[in-house]
Each structure stands twice: as C-alpha cells, then as structure tokens.
Design a protein that fits this description.
heterodimer; A: alpha+beta; twelve-stranded mixed beta sheet; six-stranded mixed β-barrel; 27 helices; about 50% helix; about 15% strand; elongated; B: alpha+beta; two-stranded antiparallel ribbon; 4 helices; 2 strands; about 55% helix
Chain lengths: ~850, ~110
C-alpha cells in the first residue's frame, strides 16, 4: 500500500528536523502511518500530524545559526587564495578586467569631482538657505518678456523697511569691468563692485581684516582682496588706513582708504571681484532714480519664510514704488519681481517667459549620465567575462557544493572576488586621477582637487561598492546555482538565456559607444561650422583693447598715434563687442510705426572707421563720415531692422531714438553681432565718441613687431599697466567655451567608452575562440579553410555589433537632433555622420575580434586535438 | 556509574532494545512496549528516550537497508552497548536486593 503521509506536516518536519535524525524519524513515522492508514485513514493522518508537532522540541530542531560561519576567517583566506590563483592562471583576463574597471572608475571619479564642484558653487554662504536674489521680469517692445538681474539701487534698503520678512538686504553694482588701482608708483587692474554696508553679513566671503558690521559705510572706503593687496603692497599686514588711488570712469577717480581685507575669490564662488567700494560712493555720483535698474539686490529672508508667499507679495512691489516716487510715466515698461535662491542661480540661470528654464544644470546632467554609462560599460565587461569563464570554474563550484558549501557561501565568495577587483581598480583609478587632474583642471577651468573628505570617501566607497555588487552579482548567482551532480558529470552547457543576456549586454555597451561617436562627430562638425561660418564681417588680425586709465580721456590722440605705426591698417573705438555685449532698447519711433507694436532693437555705438575696418558691407547709402561732428545725429540700420520697420525707402528718413531725432544714412548688410544661438535681429549703429574698447587692424605678417609698437604707445598713456589685448577671433572662442569644453570632454569620454567596450569584446572573443579550439581543429581536418573559420567565429559577433549599431545610431540621431535645435544656425545631419560612426564601430570591433579569430583559425589542428581536456 | 542515571521509561526502552537484539528500531520497540504495557504510546517518546540513551552511551545505532513501507527511508537499528548492559545489570541487582529485604510480615 503506497499512501503518502500528509505533505505539509512532512515538509514541516523536514524543515526543522536535524539532518542526522530525519532519516530515522521520517522512516518510523511513515511506517506507523502506513500501518494505521489501513485501519483508520483519518486518525492515522491526525496522529501523524500530532507526532510531527511533538517532535518540535530542542533535541530534534536543527541549528539554524550556529555552525555556519564559525570558520569565517579561514574561509576568507581560502577564498582570497583561490582568487589570487585564478588571476595568476588567467593573467590576460585579469588584466583586461583591471584595465577596464580602473579606467571606468577613474572617469566616474573625475566626473563626480566636477559635478560635485558645480553643485557646490555659491553654497558656502552661511545664509545659503535663506539667501535670495531679486529677479525682474520686464516686458519688451515686441511683446515678449525678458528676465534680468538688474533692479533699482535703493530697492534693497527700501525692502528692509517695507517687508518684515526681509532680515538683511544689500544692493551690489557690478559692471564686470576693470579699473586701475595704484599705491604709489605701482598700478594694477582690478575687477570692482559697489556694495551696501551689510555685504559681508549677507555673504560669507571671509573677511581677513575689518569688522563686518562696520565696513562699507563711508564714501571713501575700500576693501581689497588679499591677492590684490599682495600685488600692491607686497604684504597683507597692517593695511587698514592705507590709501590707494583709483581710476575708473573719471568721476570715481581719486583716493580711497583701505578699511578691510577679504580672501580672494575662489572657483566655488560665482561672484568674481578684487576690490569693493561702498555703494554710497556710487550714489553720490549718479542720479538715483527708481527707474534706473543697475544694481543686483540680494536678500536674507527670516527663518520660516515661505518663498511662494513672499514672491506673491513682491510681484508688483517695484511698480507700486515707481508710481509713488516717479509718477505713472514709466509704469508701462516696469517689470514684476520674484526672488530666486542665490545658490540656485549658477546652475539654473536661463529664463523663459519669466520662469527658470534651465542653465548649466544641463551639462551637469549630461556628464553625470556619461559617467554612469562608462561605469556601467565597465561593469558589463566584468560580468560578461566572469560568466563566460564560469565554465572554467564549474568543477570548483561542484566540489565545493559536494563538500557542503552553502549557496550563500559561494555567492559571498564571488561577490567578494569582484569586490577585491573593484577595490584594486579603485586604487589604480585614484592613482590615474592624480595624474590626470592637472590637464582636467585646464579643460574644465576649475580648481578641482582630490581632497579625501568625508563626502568624497563616502562617494568613492558607494561607487566602488555598487560597482562591485553589480559586476559580481550576475556571476555569483549564476555560478552558485549549478547542481553539483550536473557539474561534475559535465552536463552543464551554456543555456540560451545566458548567452542572450551576454549578447544583450554587449549590444548595450556598443550602442552607448556608437551614440558617443555620433555625438562627437556632430559636436565637432557644428563647432567647425560656427568657427568657419561667414559672420558677415572680417575678424582676422583685429585686436581689441579696453580703454582704461588715461585712454578713457585721451582716446583720440592715442588713436592718431597708433595709426602712424606702419603695421596698423586701422584703429577705431567701439562700445560693446560682437559676443552679445551691446546696448539696445525698444523706444524707437519711425514714420509709419504701429503704435501698439514695438520692436526691440540691439544697438552698437561705433567710431566712423569701424564699418570699413570690419569690412561690413553696405546694402544702401553710406557709412559714417570722418568729419568730426557731422554724423552725430545719423543712424545706420541693418537689413533685418529695415524689413521689420517696414520702411520702403529708408535713406533720408528720420527716426526718434529716446527723444533725439536721427536721420538714416545707410543700411548695412546683416552680420552676426551675437552668438549663433541667436538669429540676426534688428540692429542700429550709431556714431559715438566715448568708447569702451579700441579695435586695431594689423597687417598680416607683421603682427609681432606691430603689437610691440602698439604696446609701447599704450605704455606712454598707461604707464605701469600691462598691455593686454584680445584678438577678435579669441573673443569668439570664449563665446563658445562651453561647446568647446563639451566637445573636448566628450571626445575623451567617447574614446574611453569605446576602449572599455573593446576590452570586453576582446575578452569575449578570446574566450569563444578558446572554447571552440577542438571544434575548429575538427573542422580544419575535415577540410574547412581559414577563411571559413574566421567567418564562423566573427559571424556571431558581427550580428551583435550590427544590432548595437542600429540601436546606437537611432538614439544618437535623436540626441544630436535635439542638441542642434538650440542653435539658430546649424549644420544639417548628414547621412555620412551616421554611416561613418557605424562603420568605425564595426571596423574597431572587427579588429578587436580579428586578433583572436585569426590566431584560432591558423592554429595547427594537431595542437588542439592532441591534448586531452 | 554514579553519574549515570536511567529514567523509568528509558529503562523499559533499554530492556526492549536488549530483548529484541538486532531487530530493535523505532517502530518495533514501540509495538513491543505497547503490547507489554497495554497502553498507547507516541513514537516521539521512544525516540527521545533512544536519543538520550545514545548520548549517554547505553545504546549505539546503525542504518539498515531501504524498505518500501518506509517511503524510501532506512531503518535505524539499536543495540545495547556493554555500558548499557552493565547499567541494566546494576538496576536489576539493585531492585532484586531491595526486593529481598522485604520482610514477610509487612503484608499483614
């Protein structure tokens, strides 16, 4: 009679019972059960269950905890030894893994350092969480709005009075311009700003000397950075009370007294200045109308202020004030206010329709993704190689399991092995980072250092731990899952699902690499396009110098003297430049203007010779004439402006610009006066006399000596100041610094990604060739030639790579298309960008596979067949 | 011998093991006891007694062959060790000597 005892009771018994008792207990119980079942089945079952329950007592319950990890330390050493032996035996794959992982980790660390640095900019202020900047959203003549940082200079102090939420507030006026500061004979250029008295209480710039509650109150007070003080006085001691001489825009010239010293700007601060004046100095020299927006307003809000409510409250603050102080005249163009976290502005500094829409955070996100992708590629290598090589270690696993190793012990062993690899790689990666940091600093323009503080250690530990677990987990769970009998009988074969996983991972790796190749090609092409595009003006061999010091007052004699130098083709003054620094506005009236619809113009003030020197082409009319004073009330528009103004016959017509009537004398052909992110907009050129910079065109071939002579003339005017100049095309490089940086970095990262992917492929190809040596031997004996073998071996890989290329090209297309859309003038995506990237990936992978494939195909079959495996 | 103790039920099981000689395993011991004592016992009680006596060294065990009625499990046979036999002898001698001391008049 073959009835079985109650299943669940039996399962329970087997679960809790000691292994050495289960045989006897289960046997006896079953025997009794079967005897009694013949008499009374139900009672037999009940009795069986009851007996099982009666066994549930300490003598019979197996130990669930003790005995398992008693020998942790010896096992650890044993595993470590096995790991070392394994690496020693398979040096090639060990090196592949190590190279791949350490390169990936080094990339990840560098990207982490950079991202961390970006994220920490401006966060060092003590009041960081309560420190806000007031932003102003202003309507423009053409119906759009623009968001800007400029507010009335008095607003800060008015807000402290009017709004209880505001604890402290300061106005800062910063032009980003340099002036000349001198003590005795020595003069140096310095970036300056004007600031309210509470400046050092609102911001936590370290004050080395001076009292933060008292500085910046007096009109003739000044604070210097320690670096500037070092340059001026060769010391930073006992400088309070010393006098300095300042030259900037005439009316601020004069002596000032040093009242404090602050620590020089760091790269973690977005505000860059060397010298600070009191705001009262500015106010005493300017009309302080609420209508002139020239200051940045910073607020420290009281603890617990809800920013949404506060923003609601200050929305119309400026309008109300303007109405009360100046009357309703300018209300139409007055903007609304909102406060944004000061530390947020560095990364989120682009606004659309009055709202934050992005900024540098996009690059931070981009590089974070690239860093993670590279790390994942490196992890995949490790996983693929270890699972592929699992067959080599199956016997080890089988024997261990037979001896009594738990599955967990095996999993821990393999995870431990990959941890060992990752920590070894981490050590190498840190070494690599040390070596690569100086060039990385140059590329990023950041003062990044590898300081092992708590955060970095935590991040490193986490990155390494996660890398180790991810790369070790698949082999660990895969290997430990084998059934020992199958392994030892040699019945295990690679399952299809396993090879699918491996193939999928390779596809992912190569897709990422292909995306990176495509992106690099497109970025480089776009940058090349920008740099060679005809901008509508000639910027070769033209230098720009800022008109500082005495040049401000005596520009004309300076220009006349420059023009006598034989290598100088022309010299002229200009306000603003061609990288987006220009004035402009919407208040221009012209005949036939629709009163409800305005145009926002950009404007450049130029000397008479500029148009000729830059080789700007006139579409109609003439350019400014050199007769002094004759063209002061004349204006030139560009073609876009004329078209938008709808002027049929523009020459000779009169327009009113901010109350002054000006006659149109010419129309200039469109040229790019801003970056190529912007379309060419409406522009006016006016004749001006005071200029911020001087443009000098130099004869090509005579640059060196001419520059030397210009320097000599410059020194006659500004003795002691270094002669600093910029070529116009350098200006242009600065404009696309971010793109150049992205291009350079993505070039490096793409190469690294490809390198790591290839390492993985190399390892896999080697493994496949090795596993099929006997098959190849038999094939060759049966008459297959080398070409067939190569075809056989690389066919599989080629399919995988082709899939990856397809996926990668598709994703790459989407990404580059989106990126290009941010440019107003851009290249079109050519088919060969993608074909090129695809072919490059294919060829690289073929070369990688080929090394092993050809070697395998050329081996003498006797070599492989005679050995016994 | 002073440290070694033998419970009443253990002594019974040990006697049965000795009596069954080489045929003593869980179920046979249980059936024998139930027959002699004329009451139902639970197999677990027998197993507890056997395990304790094995720890004390009174019995030792070996595995027999696989039999069908036991669901593929082997029988575990017990035999009495020399120590176990001495213990039984000791118990028997003790009881007999005590029994002999009973005066006849006690049953008056």
């Amino acid at each position: 009679m073959n009835v079985n005892p109650p299943k669940r009771a039996l399962k329970f018994l087997r679960w809790f019972c000691r292994e050495d008792y289960i045989e006897e207990l289960e046997g006896d119980l079953t025997e009794i059960f079967r005897k009694e079942y013949g008499i009374a089945p139900a009672r037999a079952k009940r009795k069986f269950v009851w007996s099982v329950i009666r066994y549930f007592r300490p003598e019979f319950i197996k130990s669930f905890t003790a005995n398992r990890y008693i020998n942790t330390l010896p096992m650890f050493w044993h595993n470590f030894l096995i790991t070392l032996r394994n690496h020693k035996k398979h040096k090639a794959s060990f090196l592949l893994n190590l190279t791949g992982l350490s390169t990936g980790l080094a990339c990840a660390i560098m990207i982490y350092l950079w991202v961390n640095d970006e994220l920490s900019v401006d966060k060092f202020h003590e009041n960081d969480t309560r420190l806000y900047q007031v932003m102003k959203t202003v309507p423009r003549a053409d119906g759009t709005v623009t968001t800007m940082v400029y507010t009335p200079a008095q607003m800060a102090q008015e807000m402290v009075k009017d709004l209880p939420e505001v604890e402290l507030a300061v106005s800062v006026i910063s032009h980003g311009e340099t002036g000349i500061v001198s003590a005795g004979e020595k003069g140096v250029k310095a970036k300056h700003q004007f600031a309210d008295k509470d400046y050092f209480r609102v911001f936590s710039y370290p004050l080395l000397e001076g009292n933060k509650y008292k500085v910046l109150t007096g009109k003739h007070e000044v604070l210097l950075s320690d670096k500037l003080a070092m340059k001026l006085f060769n010391t930073t001691e006992n400088l309070i009370g010393k006098s300095i001489e300042w030259q900037w825009r005439d009316k601020f010239d004069g002596p000032y007294t040093v009242s404090g010293l602050f620590e020089a700007r760091s790269s973690r601060s977005s505000a860059q200045f060397d010298i600070i004046f009191s705001l009262s100095a500015w106010e005493s020299n300017n009309d302080n109308c609420w209508c002139s927006n020239n200051a940045n307003t910073y607020l420290v809000l009281r603890e617990g202020t809800a920013i949404e409510e506060f923003n609601e409250k200050i929305r119309d603050y400026s309008k109300v004030k303007l109405n009360a102080l100046e009357g309703p005249g300018g209300l139409k163009w007055e903007g609304t206010l909102f406060a944004q976290r000061f530390s947020e502005r560095y990364l989120h500094g682009i606004y659309e329709n009055g709202f934050v829409s992005g900024g540098k955070i996009e690059y931070v996100a981009l590089f974070s993704i690239i860093g993670i992708a590279i790390l994942v590629i490196a992890c995949i290598n490790f996983m693929n190689l270890s699972t592929a090589k699992a067959s080599r270690r199956m016997k080890e696993v089988g024997i261990k399991k037979v001896i009594g190793a738990h599955r967990w012990a095996l999993i821990l062993q393999y995870i431990g092995e990959s941890m060992f690899m990752t920590f070894l790689s981490l050590a190498i990666a840190i070494f690599m980072v040390y070596i690569l940091l100086p060039p990385f600093r140059t590329i990023t323009g950041k003062d990044i250092a590898l300081n092992f503080d708590y955060n970095l250690l935590l991040a490193l530990g986490l990155i390494t731990l996660i890398t180790g677990i991810i790369s070790g987990s698949y082999p660990a769970f895969h290997l430990s899952g084998f059934r020992p009998t199958d392994v030892l009988k040699g019945r295990i074969k690679a399952t299809t699902s396993e090879s699918w996983v491996r193939k999928g991972l390779v596809v992912f790796q190569f897709s990422v690499s292909v995306v990176l190749i495509v992106s690099v090609i497109v970025i480089l092409k776009q940058i090349e396009f920008i740099q060679t595009k005809n901008l509508g003006y000639d910027r070769n061999n033209i230098i720009r110098i800022s008109n500082e010091g005495k040049l401000e007052k005596s520009l004309t004699p300076f220009l006349n003297q420059i023009k006598t130098i034989p290598g100088v083709l022309g010299a002229s003054g200009m306000s603003g430049d061609f990288t987006g620094n220009h004035s402009g506005g919407g208040g221009i009236q012209w005949p036939g203007k629709d009163p409800n619809h305005g145009i926002e113009f950009s404007g450049l003030y130029v000397d008479y010779n500029v148009i000729e020197m830059l080789n700007l082409k006139m579409a109609e009319g003439r350019s400014f004439s050199p007769d002094p004073g004759s063209d002061n009330e004349k204006v030139i528009f560009n073609e876009t402006a004329v078209a938008m103004m709808n002027l049929k016959d523009p020459i000779g017509q009169t327009v009113t610009m901010w109350g002054r009537e000006k006659k149109i004398v010419g129309v200039v052909k469109n040229f790019h006066y801003e970056s190529l992110y912007e379309r060419v907009g409406p522009l006016f050129l006016c004749y001006g006399e005071k200029h911020q910079s001087t443009l000098i065109k130099i004869k090509s071939g005579m640059e060196a000596e001419t520059l030397h002579q210009i320097g000599a003339v410059y020194n006659d005017y500004n003795n002691g100041l270094p002669f600093e100049y910029q070529f116009l095309d350098q200006d242009f490089q600065v404009l696309y610094a971010a793109e150049n940086r992205v291009a350079l970095l993505s070039k490096y990262f793409a190469s690294i990604a490809i390198l790591i992917s290839c390492l993985g492929l190399f390892g896999l190809a080697a493994f496949t060739a090795e596993r099929r040596t006997r098959e190849i031997g038999i094939r060759k004996i049966l008459g297959s030639n080398e070409l067939n073998i190569v075809y056989l071996l690389s066919g599989d890989f080629t399919k995988i790579i082709l899939t990856a290329i397809t996926v990668g090209l598709f994703v790459g297309y989407l990404i580059t298309k989106t990126w290009l859309e941010s440019f107003a003038y851009r290249i079109s995506l050519e088919w060969w960008f993608f074909a090129g990237a695809g072919v490059a990936a294919l060829i690289i992978s073929w070369i990688t596979i080929g090394i092993h494939t050809i070697k395998a195909a050329r081996t003498n079959p006797i070599e492989t067949l005679k050995m016994d495996q | 011998m002073k440290d070694q103790s033998l419970g009443e039920f253990e002594e019974l099981v040990l006697l049965v093991v000795a009596g069954l000689h080489d045929e003593a395993y869980g179920v046979s011991i249980l059936e024998h006891l139930e027959e002699k004592l004329e009451k139902k016992l639970n197999i677990s009680a027998v197993h507890v007694a056997l395990k304790r006596m094995e720890d004390k060294g009174f019995v030792k065990s070996r595995f027999g062959g696989i039999t069908e009625e036991r669901g593929g499990r082997r029988k575990k046979f017990y035999i009495v060790t020399a120590l176990g036999k001495r213990m039984l002898d000791h118990q028997y001698a003790l009881r007999t000597s005590l029994y002999k001391q009973i005066p006849k008049i006690s049953f008056g």
